[in-house]
């Protein structure tokens, strides 16, 4: 089986993601703003209760926030826009008419779209919140460097798994879109779930003790939370291996379930009219 | 499978049935109702033929087209296209067919026509030399030279449809399925599309299955027309046969420079309209041949002009649907 169609799908969505340069700048400003507000909130909370032994130090909470903000567009917020459009117009029939494995075809496109959106923003925001913030004397508020070289390497592996996991969850939204012939449901379900469960709203390590084990083992933790913990060098129950293991487990499990759901969907997909 | 289906035909369909189960009221617990879209249709199309596939809205055409394209699974029946069962060998099957749905676009809005074709080259794995050859040939035949670098969203409907047809043929499919390829097109664009499809079939031996509501497409292109209604095949014959069996009558129009006289007409002819200066006569040429009728009325006083015409293809089809309550 040739890889070429999948690389083509990847290349196309990557280019489309990069095409919206103004969206990158606008997104960057929004994320800087939300990041700064969140940081100030943390600062006042931490200073108000200096004796409490928090799971993350203030500096770690700030770094966690910066990385989350920079990776916002890596989250599975809804379906791939191209599939949403195709479902609405009925052009989705043409996707079924291509001699490709539908799962891999949509997955490569979804992954490319996530990366095309997230990579430029992440690099820019990391530069601004990291070195630039330090240079202008905001070092205490800046993005801290990784805990160690090993942490940096493992975090890179982990975020790669996280991106794949996110694209796999997007596949779920894509299939939902193909079934309902509308992208709206995927956004209605996807955005709150992803924002809440990924740790975007509040870092998962800062939730109450009793709910933390659940939050760690649910699939959305594998997108950004586990990579950030590895980057920060904060302990993960069971160690880094558990973190990576959870990511791989969810990747495999969701791929298996997703492929079954997709096969069932393709068999019953009835595109209206023609 | 019982006896193997013939392999000399490009498309073979035997006793194809499809029932949709729809939920009424849209609620979770709503009752379901079965709708029979195809109620056992059989036909075959030999290689290199252009077959017209027509029927009123809701007759089951789209369902049949989707099954033949491999994107819908029938409830029962046998289908072979190029010797493959479309829904079980989806990937191998779709690699060898080209499909144009006139109301949808397969090109990418954000890309130029040329970029879109290059993308399809990668998807279908067309070798570079073959791609260059096909691209040049299609650009020439479909007059795409000026729009190769334009993005698809900027194209007019006629330009877009020509680009869509090129997109469906870039991988040299053996079978081309055209679903309303001339919908919304102006007259020159329709003629261009028809001429291209005709040449494609003649020069390359491509088998074409054409569905349309534009009967002029059928008249211009199809050697054979399959009429479907209520999920069944109502007729499967050359178009001329359909004309003879459905609406063989002719129309004779007589113009007078004064009030037309009273007529006594031979059997098989009857007066169907009378105006201050003209009379319309409908006649069956099997009962009264046109020359005999003309001889009969030719001596009428005050006759200026006369014209004989056949019912239009639209009238024939309308009558056919009415006769079959389709």
From TrEMBL, chain A:
A Pfam family assignment: ABC2_membrane_6
Report which superkingdom the organism of origin falls in.
Bacteria
- Transmembrane helix is among the record's keywords: yes
**Keywords recorded for this protein, A-Z:** Membrane, Transmembrane, Transmembrane helix
Coiled-coil region: none
The membrane spanning regions, by residue number, are: 20-43, 63-83, 122-143, 149-175, 187-207, 244-262
Instruction: Decide whether keyword Transmembrane helix is in the record.
Output: yes
Q: Per its UniProt record, what InterPro entries does this chain match?
A: ABC-2_transporter-like (IPR010390)
From the Swiss-Prot or TrEMBL record, give the protein name: ABC transporter permease
From TrEMBL, chain B:
Database matches in Gene3D superfamilies? P-loop containing nucleotide triphosphate hydrolases
Where does the record place a coiled coil? none
| The ABC transporter domain, residue ranges | 11-255
What Pfam family is a match, any one? ABC_tran
Q: Which organism is it from?
A: Gluconobacter vitians
* Superkingdom per UniProt: Bacteria
Show the InterPro entries listed in the entry: AAA+_ATPase, ABC_transporter-like_ATP-bd, ABC_transporter-like_CS, ABC_transporter_ATP-binding, P-loop_NTPase
User: What GO annotations for molecular function exist for this entry?
Assistant: ATP binding
- Name of protein: ABC transporter ATP-binding protein
Under PANTHER family, the record lists: ABC TRANSPORTER ATP-BINDING PROTEIN, ABC-TRANSPORT PROTEIN, ATP-BINDING COMPONENT
């Amino acid at each position: 089986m040739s890889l070429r169609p999948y690389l083509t799908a990847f290349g196309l969505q990557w280019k489309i993601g990069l095409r919206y340069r103004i969206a990158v700048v606008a997104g960057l400003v929004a994320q800087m703003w939300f990041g700064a507000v969140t940081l100030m909130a943390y600062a006042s909370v931490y200073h108000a209760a200096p004796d409490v032994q928090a799971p993350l130090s203030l500096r770690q909470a700030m770094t966690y926030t910066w990385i989350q903000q920079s990776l916002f567009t890596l989250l599975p917020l809804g379906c791939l826009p191209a599939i949403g459009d195709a479902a609405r117009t009925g052009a989705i029939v043409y996707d079924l008419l291509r001699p490709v494995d539908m799962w891999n075809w949509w997955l490569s496109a979804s992954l490319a779209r996530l990366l095309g959106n997230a990579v430029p923003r992440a690099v820019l925001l990391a530069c601004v919140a990291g070195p630039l913030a330090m240079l202008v004397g905001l070092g205490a508020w800046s993005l801290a460097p990784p805990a160690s070289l090993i942490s940096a390497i493992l975090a890179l592996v982990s975020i790669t798994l996280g991106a794949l996991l996110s694209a796999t969850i997007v596949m779920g939204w894509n299939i939902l879109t193909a079934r309902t012939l509308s992208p709206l449901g995927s956004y209605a379900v996807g955005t709150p779930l992803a924002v809440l469960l990924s740790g975007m709203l509040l870092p998962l390590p800062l939730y109450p003790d009793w709910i933390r084990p659940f939050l760690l083992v649910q699939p959305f933790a594998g997108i950004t939370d586990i990579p950030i913990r590895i980057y920060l060098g904060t302990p993960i129950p069971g160690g880094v291996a558990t973190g990576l293991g959870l990511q791989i487990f969810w990747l495999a499990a969701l791929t298996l379930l997703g492929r079954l759901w997709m096969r069932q969907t393709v068999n019953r997909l009835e595109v209206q009219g023609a | 499978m019982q006896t193997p289906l013939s392999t000399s035909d490009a498309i073979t369909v035997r006793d194809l049935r499809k029932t949709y189960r729809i939920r009424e009221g849209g609620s979770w617990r709503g009752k379901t109702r079965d709708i029979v879209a195809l109620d056992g249709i059989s036909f075959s199309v030999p290689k290199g033929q252009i077959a017209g596939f027509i029927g009123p809205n809701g007759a089951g055409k789209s369902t049949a087209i989707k099954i033949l394209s491999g994107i819908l699974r029938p409830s029962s029946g046998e289908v072979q296209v190029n010797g493959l069962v479309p829904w079980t060998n989806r990937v191998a099957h779709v690699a060898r067919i080209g499909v144009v749905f006139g109301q949808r676009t397969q090109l990418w809005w954000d890309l130029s026509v040329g970029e879109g074709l290059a993308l399809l080259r990668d998807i279908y794995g067309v070798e570079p030399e073959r791609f260059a050859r096909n691209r040049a040939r299609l650009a020439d035949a479909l007059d795409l030279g000026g729009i190769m670098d334009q993005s698809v969203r900027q194209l007019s409907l006629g330009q877009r449809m020509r680009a869509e047809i090129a997109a469906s043929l870039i991988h040299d499919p053996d079978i081309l399925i055209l679903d309303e390829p001339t919908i919304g097109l102006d007259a020159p664009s329709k003629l261009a599309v028809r001429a291209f499809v005709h040449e494609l079939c003649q020069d390359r031996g491509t088998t074409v299955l054409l569905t349309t509501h534009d009967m002029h497409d059928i008249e211009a292109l199809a050697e054979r027309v399959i009429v479907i209604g209520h999920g069944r095949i109502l007729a499967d014959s050359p178009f001329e046969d359909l004309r003879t069996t459905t609406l063989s009558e002719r129309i004779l129009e007589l113009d007078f420079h004064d009030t037309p006289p009273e007529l006594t007409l031979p059997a098989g002819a009857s007066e169907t309209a009378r105006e201050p200066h003209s009379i319309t006569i409908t006649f069956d040429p099997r009962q009264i041949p046109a020359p005999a009728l003309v001889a009969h009325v030719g001596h009428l006083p005050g006759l200026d002009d006369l014209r004989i015409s056949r019912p239009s293809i639209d009238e024939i089809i309308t009558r056919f649907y009415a006769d079959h309550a389709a």
